[in-house]
Each structure stands twice: as C-alpha cells, then as structure tokens.
Amino acid sequence: MVRFGAAVASVMVLCACGSSIALPVGTPAPSAQGATSPAADLRTHVDVFFGEHAFAIAKLSVAAAAGRTDEFHSYAGVLAANGADITTLMRSALGETEGTRFGQEWTAGNNFYVDYLVAAVTHDQPRATAALSNLTTTYVPQLAQLLKASLPLSTEQATQVAADQVSTFQKLIDDAVGATFTALYPDLRAAYVKAVRGGDLVAIAIASRFADRFPGNATSKSADFRGVIDTLLMEQAYLLTMESDATVAGAKEELAAATEAVRTNTNAMTAVVGGIFGDAASVQFGAVWDSESLLLTAYAKSGDAGVRQNVINTGAPPMGPGQSFEPDLTNELTTMLQAVDDQRGKSFDKLGNDDRAAATQLAAAGDSVTATAVRQAPAKFV
Known about the structure:
Layout: H1 5-14, H2 38-65, H3 69-94, H4 96-121, H5 125-150, H6 155-177, H7 181-209, H8 221-249, H9 252-277, H10 279-302, H11 305-314, H12 330-345, H13 348-376
C-alpha cells in the first residue's frame, strides 16, 4: 500500500500560503477596452488558474494510482500552490474578507479531493464515501452560497460552477485509479473546459460588480481570444509533460491516450489561430506542435542532446510572411525540458514547480499572440 499521509498534510498547509506565481501580460492592445484591460486581465488569470486546477488533480491522481509516491508529493505541492494563487487573486478581486472565505472553501474542497483519491487508491470504500459526501453535501452548497452572496450570480449558476467541478474531478480520479486512460484524457479535457467556463462566469461577474476596480470589457472579442489561446496553450504544456511522463514510466497505454489528447488540443489551437491568421498560418502552427510532441517524447525516451536542441529550435521559428504571429518559445520550451529532465532523473522535489512554471510561461505567451492578432487583424475584433 502506498503511503500518502504526508502529502495530504502538505495540501492542507500549503493552500494557506501566499501567491507563488504572478501571470505576466503581453504587449498592450490598442484599446483599453481590449485584451489587456483590467477586466480582461482578471478574466484571463481566473480562467488559467481554474483550468490549472483540473490538471493538478489529474496529475496527482495518475501519480497516486501508479504508486509513484514522490511524484504524488510533488503534485500535491502544485495543487496547494494553485489554491494559494486562487486565494490571493480572490482577495485582490473581492476584498480581504470575501476573498479569504473563498480561499478557505477552495482549500476544504482540495482536501476532500485528496481524501477521496487516497481512499480510492487504498480501496477504503467508507472513507471514499465520506469524502464524496463532504464534496457534494458540504463543499458544493457552501461554495455556491459564497459565490451567490459575493457576486451577481443566480443560485443555479453558482451551484453549477461548484457541482461541475466535483462531478468532473471525481471522474478524473476514478479514471486514474482504474487505469482507464482512454477515458481519462477525454474526461480531463471536459473537466478543463468546464473549469475554464466556470472561471469565465466568476470573473465576468466580479468585473460587473466591481466595474470601478476592473474597468474595460471582459467579454470583448479580443478578451475572448486571449482567454481561449492562453488556456489552450496551458493545456498543451501540461498534456505534453503528461506525454513525456508516460514515456519515462514506460506506460504505453497512457502514452497513446496522452498523445491523442495532445493532438486534439493542437487541432483546437490551430482552428483558433486559423480563424484570425488564415489557413496557411494555421497549418504552420499545427506543424510546430506536432513536431514538438514527437521531439519531446523522443527526448524523454533517449535524453539525447541533439533532440533536446531540436525541441528548442522548433519553438523558435524564423520571422517572415505568415510567421510573425508565432512568439519565440525558447524560454518556455527550455523550462518544459527541465521538467522532462526532472522526470528522467526522478528529481521529484523540483518536478511540480518546473512543470507548473513551463505551463504558466506558455499560457502567458498567448498574450503576445493576442497582441499580434489585434494589431494585424483589427477588423476581426470589432
């Protein structure tokens, strides 16, 4: 039986800590009502952190189910850091009292998720039943009540945000424990999409209530584009390191499912890019990520220095016609490679932080894509 007690404790302690990552923003868009207004900034940051929550649960669950205790501890730290950042963000958005209460409810939910995961892995059905009951009968109504009291949301809207999180995260945990990877990755995408949509609902409601604090339009077309491309890039980063993790672990079934998930997300990104920059740019953008998937997997398997350099070179395309929308991803991919090195070297004390840093940096690169899109195709954002 795998011992998870210390990791559970780490979640409870770390979720009360201060913010660990501040998301940067890209080059300002032409209008204060556009992609980088305070309202749009808020929406993007809430979306990214809410979405990341799903990946923290998924990675924690896969590690636990596979008996990789040190990796489990590392991603317990990611779950805790994500909770701390959400708490800090909500304090700044809602005020100290309401933001602190939100953080306390979020932390309670995380602890219930870990309880359910540990119980599922250790086949402790009474404990699993109790944890699920705590999530559905305590966490959901309390978080919903807080959201309704703090924001212009209906009871139905507030309850849906909390209930969607619980139902989708339970599926993730059950999929991981059952090693049903063909279900895990589609369920992860569904959970991520619902988490981001929940973030949209919460952030737009905050911007509506505190319009003086968050001026601008959180629902402008440029804000929509920024939120979509940033969250798709974060999803890509976390999926790629799940693919490399499965490669290092020799988990062939998981690797096949992770590779298909990367391909699905790449297709989603290319569709978004093509809608602004055209078909040629879309094909080129997709080709870059198809290559990165193959190269990162090859590097995870071999550790070859030449392959490592090719990963970086592929992410730094030459600037030219039809290519200027692509940011130079050298720094982001170097950080991602560090996470792969951690996986290969079993440096689990660093893995969670490096993985999170790579995902956060890649999400922020979407801001540059948005700024270029608004500059090159302003008519599409009217």
